[in-house]
Amino acid sequence: MSPPAPGVLISEVGPRDGLQSVATAMPTAAKCAWIAALHAAGLREIEVGSFVSPKRLPQLADTAAVVRHAVTLPGLTVMVLVPNRTGADAAIAAGVHKLTLPLSASEAHSLANVGRTPQQMLAQIGEVHALRRERAPGVAFEVGLSTAFGCTLQGPVAEDEVIRLAVAAAEAGADEVGLSDTTGMANPAQVRRLFSRLFAELGERAGAAHLHNTRGLGLANCLAAYDAGVRTFDASLGGLGGCPYAPGASGNVVTEDLVFMFEAMGVATGVDLPGLIAARAALQQGLPGEPLYGMLPDAGLPKGFVPATTPLRGSAA
Ligand code: ZN
């Protein structure tokens, strides 16, 4: 009997979002061991790296090798970040299943992050879509709208502009468009409002929530996004990472805590919490001394905890 379909998809971004913010480069073999441990815990979508200039992010220079390992893990969607057509070309050649391209809603962040305006990035999205259609129509293509909830450089970002860019990105060829709280400025009311508007505009093409815990609102924001209809959530094991081009921003939502919240609510993730805790050892081995976060790993599972994926004792199933 196959397990029940997960209620939500947890997309692990540590090997990309996490590692790009750490100065030390994790050895390739350690990355592969960590990704294998994440997969063994039940994660079925992992952002394993980024095809950007190795001069800009030397920590991710081995992404092609990491992809070649990750695609051997059964049932895993192997995703990478690409900033442009050149990156998408390399990613498709490496054999990825899914591309994610960041589009900043803030012009200041866009220029700092990728050296292009949001409008110029929309043209890149069109080019990536054309390339994908021609060379790898089976590869999925998602756009993540970064600084959608505010920008450390520019301050508030107009919600109408976020929605306008999301619609434009979908029109330019992205399968799905998600919203990212790159700088950790979001609150639950804002998350509920913006994702509701995104669903109203894009329907099933409304994508993932990428939320940060910079000011302690990570899980509250994830719950607000869930209430608004989101079913894919980015998170990072041990809360590793943030964004190196947004001063003061740190702290992806901790995968362990997010999985615990959903499982405790009865929303299946398909992820095994003890397996996730075990994956921390693989991460720690590859990055000795790097601080890891998470409340669940510190406190442990509550006595008598029953995950959502386990059939209730005595049930006929
Ligand atoms: Zn992040």
Can you walk me through this structure?
The chain has 317 residues and is an alpha/beta fold. It has a single domain (9-299), classed as Aldolase class I (TIM Barrel, Alpha-Beta Barrel), CATH 3.20.20.70. 41% of the residues lie in helices and 14% in strands. An 8-stranded parallel β-barrel has the order 1-2-3-4-5-6-7-8, surrounded by 8 helices. Helix 7 packs parallel to helix 8 (188-202). The termini are close together. The model is unreliable at 1-5 and 311-317 (pLDDT under 50). Bound molecules: zinc ion.
Mean of the pLDDT scores?
A: 92
Distance from first to last alpha carbon: 10 Å
When the domains are counted, the total is 1
Low-confidence stretches: 1-5, 311-317
Structural class: alpha/beta
Q: List SSEs in N-to-C order.
A: EHHEHEHEHHEHEHEHEHHH
Mind telling me the CATH class?
Alpha Beta
- Tell me which ligands are bound: zinc ion
User: Helical region count?
Assistant: 12
Apparent shape: globular
Which value, in Å, is the CA radius of gyration?
Answer: 18 Å
CATH architecture: Alpha-Beta Barrel
Beta-strand content estimate: 5-15%
> The CATH topology is what?
TIM Barrel
- Number of strand elements: 8
Spatial order of strands in the largest sheet: 1-2-3-4-5-6-7-8
* Biggest beta-sheet profile: 8 strands, parallel, barrel
